[in-house]
Amino acid sequence: MKILRTSDKRFAHLKEYPFDPHYTTIKTHDNSDLRIHHIDEGPEDGPILLCIHGQPVWSYLYLRMIPFLTEAGVRVIAPDLPGYGKSDKPAAREKIIVINDKWTG
């Protein structure tokens, strides 16, 4: 499967999005590598809040919530689903649905 990767430079203008990027690589159904971006903010020992975005948005959706939650001691994890935000994008748009269905169950 052909995979597209958006350069980090494309996100440099988002000064209000101060979160450190974290990446995990998963295998697709055809054994291609797909890099998934996620935010991981707050105390490691805090209760975890997993924020899953809908379509067509990405983890940027939570940028105003995260500071309040982390100040309250919550660890916030917010992935960008494949095809969105800082995560890799399959070149064939119809593959995004298949990958997200398999990845999220």
CATH homolog superfamily = Alpha/Beta hydrolase fold, catalytic domain
Helix content: 10-25%
| SS content category | alpha+beta
Largest sheet: 4 strands, mixed
Strand content: 25-35%
Low-confidence spans: pLDDT under 50, at least 5 residues?
none
Question: Which labels suit this protein?
Answer:
single chain; 105 residues; alpha+beta; Rossmann fold; four-stranded mixed β-sheet; two-stranded antiparallel sheet; globular
Protein described:
By secondary structure, the protein is of the alpha+beta class. It has a single domain (3-104), classed as Alpha/Beta hydrolase fold, catalytic domain (Rossmann fold, 3-Layer(aba) Sandwich), CATH 3.40.50.1820. 16% of the residues lie in helices and 26% in strands. It is built from two helices and six strands, in the order E-E-E-E-H-E-E-H. It has helices at 66-71, 94-104; strands at 3-4, 22-27, 33-41, 48-50, 75-79, 89-90. The strands form two sheets. It has a four-stranded mixed sheet with strand order 2-3-5-4. A two-stranded antiparallel sheet has the order 1-6. The protein is globular. The protein starts with a strand and ends with a helix. The mean pLDDT is 89.
